[in-house]
Specification:
By secondary structure, this protein is an alpha+beta fold. The protein has a domain of 141 residues: Orthogonal Bundle (Jann2411-like fold). 43% of the residues lie in helices and 11% in strands. The protein is built from 7 helices and 4 strands, in the order αααααββαββα. The strands form 2 sheets. A two-stranded antiparallel sheet has the order 1-2. Strands 3-4 form a two-stranded antiparallel ribbon. Strand 3 and strand 4 form a beta hairpin. Helix 2 packs across helix 4 and helix 5 crosses helix 6. The N and C termini lie far apart (49 Å). The structure holds zinc ion. The site of zinc ion has 8 residues, from helix 7. This is Zinc finger CGNR domain-containing protein.
């Protein structure tokens, strides 16, 4: 178990989808946002997976009891990574079992709301509030996000940042499908600076 961060770094929320942000909750340099129940709860709130009320409710009774759920979350994250790593074959049903068990245990309250899509046009979607009568229900928003990713997103647009030491993933939602970096401010500028150095050297 990783000790809780005193001041967890800001999570990388550049994935374009909650399930991809979840994948990015550990990075190549082993920065881990889900190392303990306390850290997991902070990440869930910052990523928008749960709201502040749900976070406060989950905190009642002590965050230490959430440590096993953080462990389960880390397993779920690696199951998702494995599912996405070879998309040339449809996974066998048993590889979906952990996810299906989570979905089957769902006791959330759902309601239909009107929001907007990426172009600003009205769009219906289902909003769910996890029941949180048990700590493991904190995994529900992640299970729904993974199911939504697998069912509704074009996984051909899933990319890994081209920054050399960067492991962050994202869905390329640009019109030209030419997004290369987790963020221009970090890896994009670093690559531009390296290209500039290479040009001025030669
Ligand atoms: Zn990057």
């Amino acid at each position: 178990m990783t000790a809780p961060h005193k001041n967890p770094p800001e999570p990388h929320l550049i994935g374009g989808h909650l399930a991809i942000d979840f994948l990015n909750s550990i990075t190549a340099d082993r920065t881990e946002w889900l190392g303990s129940g306390a850290d997991f709860l902070v990440w869930l709130e910052k990523s928008g997976a749960i709201d502040a009320n749900a976070c406060a409710k989950a905190r009642e009774g002590g965050v230490e009891r959430l440590d096993p759920v953080a462990t389960e979350a880390r397993h779920l994250r690696e199951q998702l990574r494995a599912l996405l790593s070879d998309r040339s074959v449809l996974p066998q049903a048993d590889r979906l079992s952990p996810l299906n068990e989570l979905l089957a245990a769902d006791e959330s309250r759902a309601r239909l709301v009107v929001g907007t899509n990426a172009e600003g046009a009205p769009r219906f979607h289902i909003e769910r509030a996890p029941a949180l009568s048990r700590p493991d229900q904190l995994l529900q928003p992640l299970a729904w996000a993974i199911a939504d990713l697998l069912c509704n997103e074009d996984l051909n647009l899933l990319r890994r940042c081209e920054g050399g030491a960067c492991s962050l993933m994202f869905i390329d939602r640009t019109k030209s499908h030419a997004r290369r970096w987790c963020s221009m401010a970090v890896c994009g500028n670093r690559a531009k600076a390296a290209a500039h150095r290479a040009r001025t050297k030669g």
